[in-house]
Amino acid sequence: LRRVPLFSGLTEAQIERLAAGSVRRNFPKGRVIVTEGEPSQSLYILLSGRAKVQRSDTEGKEVILAVIGPGECFGEMSLIDESPRSASVITIDTSDFMAINKESFKSMMMSSPEMCLRIMAGLVRRLREADRKIETLALLDVYGRVARVLLDMSEKVGEERMIRTRLPRQEIAKMIGASREMVSRVMKGLETEGYIVPLGEGRVLLREKLSTYLV
Ligand code: CMP
Known about the structure:
Blueprint: H1 12-20, E1 22-27, E2 32-34, E3 42-48, E4 51-56, E5 62-68, E6 73-74, H2 76-81, E7 88-91, E8 95-101, H3 102-111, H4 113-139, H5 142-153, E9 155-157, E10 160-163, H6 169-176, H7 180-192, E11 196-200, E12 203-206
Antiparallel strand pairs: 1-8, 2-7, 3-6, 3-8, 4-5, 4-7, 9-10, 10-12, 11-12
Helix pairs in contact: 5-6, 6-7
The site of adenosine-3',5'-cyclic-monophosphate has 16 residues, from strand 5, helix 2 and helix 4.
C-alpha cells in the first residue's frame, strides 16, 4: 500500500488500519468492477493492468471517459458524495486491484488531511482532463480527435513518440464519439500520409507532424 502514491504520506499505524480494511483482487479482461448507477461499497486502486471508465445511454451506446493505469484510484466519487456510481469501470487487461471498504476509506480521510489533499489533487487532475476533452470534442475534427487520443496513449522514446499497448479501434471510437469504421479510415489515412507508422504487435510510431492536427 505504501507504494501507492495516494497513501505515501500516511503513518505506519494508518497504513495498518487501511490494510485491515482492504483486500487484493485479480480480475480477468472484460470484467465489470463498478456498475454505473449502483450504490458504492469500496474504493479501488489499480495495481497492474488497465481499466476503462465508461457510461452508456438507454440504447446501450457507450462513451469511454477515461482509461485508468497502474497506481490510479477509482470509485472515490460516490463514496465522497453518497450518490450512485457515476460510471462503470471495466478491465481492459487482466488486472490487480486493491479494494478498500467504505468505512476504512472514510475514517482515513477524516484522520489524514494529507490524504484528503491527494484525493482532491486527483479530482482536480481529472477535471483538467475533462476540460481538455470537452475542448477536443468541441473544436477538433475527427482527424484531430484521433490524433489527440493517439498522442495521449503514447510515450516519449528518444526523440519520437511511441504507442506500446494495444487499444482496439472500437475503443478509440468510443472515446471520441465516432464509429469504428471512421476511426479505421482515419488511421489508414494517417498511415498513408506518413503521420503514423505501425511497427507490429500493436506498437505504433507517431511522427512529430501528427501534432499539427491538434491546432
Ligand atoms: P464512482 O462514481 O464511485 O464510480 C465510477 C468511477 O469512475 C468514479 O467514482 C471515478 O473514480 C471514475 N471516473 C468517473 N469519471 C471519470 C473521468 N472523467 N475520468 C476518470 N475517472 C472517472
